[in-house]
Amino acid sequence: MPVRRRGDVWWVDIQIGGQRIRQSAGPGATREEAKKLEAQIRAKHRRVQRGAHTLDDALARWLDGEARSLKSRKQLLYHVAVIRPFCAGKLLVEAPDVAETFTKKYRDKVTNSTINRKLAILRRICRLAYRVWHWLPEPIDQRIIMLSEINKRGTFLRAAQVEELARACAEPAAADMIRLAAFTGLRRSELFRAEYHDGLLYLAETKSGKPRAIPVPERVRAIAARLPLPITPTHLRKHFEAARKAAGLAVRFHDLRHTFASLLIQAGGSLATVQELMGHSTIAITKDLYGHLETDHLAKTVRLLDKL
Asked: Higher-confidence residue: 236 or 268?
């Protein structure tokens, strides 16, 4: 109990934000006076904490605590690295404004789901800061607005456009990453973890949690053999943005993954094969994203009418 009696004296014994606070209500004080003292201590703590903690404080506490044992920790660290520059020098109470700024910057550059992965981190630390750590005087997590993920279809490039985009890239390593993404279907983060052996790219850890091996087409095999390429995720993002503007192509880096699936289907690949190569957990995901591209079986069925 937060208020308890020891001998003839009432004591306040509470824990706030991981800190234990014990204080005597004084000789002769009643239980009601001890309860008032508890309320005063809590109010004072909230006044001290209001606005005192930064987003960096919250990210550090979350990473050292709850997030330390999560299976997706490596992926979380990548998301944190992307959102952290927007959090620098910002107070915890400014998290909704930080989320809005981040969304505006990346809205037309990456998928809504990619943005939401970063926003979800801000939401989580704000929820913990209010409910568990008592760093916030009021809940603000619901003021961080997530984006709709209903429209899942991406943009598909032709093989010639992929090369046009790569040639518009000023950094050779970034250009090779563009080619590799378009002809292997690897996600940006996977490009930095993949290992090449005997015509295959191996991923020990994927989004689905299962290892994956992807055959590499001859046209990009020499690039794959040089992995890891001398470039960081930040510089890849920077050079890709410059290249797409120079080439006049309204694409996101993730659209290179969609391009891989599109090229496979146009070449006659089945949805089941595309599912396996893309690493989708179910065929339903593949059909939802690329089913509209597979029209050969429809055309064959309609041609049956010509035999009537």
From this structure: 236
pLDDT digits (tens, 9 = 90+) for 4-13: 888 888 888 8
More confident residue, 5 or 82: 82
The answer on pLDDT for 49 being more than 60 is no
Give the pLDDT confidence of 191-234 residue by residue, as tens digits: 999 999 999 999 887 666 678 899 999 999 999 999 999 999 99
Same domain flag for 64 and 119: yes
Q: Is residue 151 part of a domain?
A: no
Owning domain of residue 7: 3-49
Q: What is the pTM of this model?
A: 0.55
What lies within 8 Å, CB to CB, of 202 at 6+ separation is 194, 195, 196, 211, 212, 213
3-state secondary structure the chain: CCEEEECCEEEEEEEECCEEEEEECCCCCCHHHHHHHHHHHHHHHHHHHCCCCEHHHHHHHHHHCHHHHCCCHHHHHHHHHHHHHHHCCCEHHHHHHHHHHHHHHHCCCCCHHHHHHHHHHHHHHHHHHHHCCCCCCCCCHHHCCCCCCCCCCCCCCCHHHHHHHHHCCCCHHHHHHHHHHHHHCCCHHHHCCCEEECCEEEECCCCCCCCEEEECCHHHHHHHCCCCCCCCHHHHHHHHHHHHHHHCCCCCCCHHHHHHHHHHHHCCCCHHHHHHHHCCCCHHHHHHHHHHHCCHHHHHHHHHHHHC
Domain end among 84, 112, 143: 143
Same domain, 74 and 133: yes
Residue 149 in any domain: the answer is no
Check residue 300 and give its pLDDT: 59
User: What tokens does 248 get?
Assistant: 């006049």
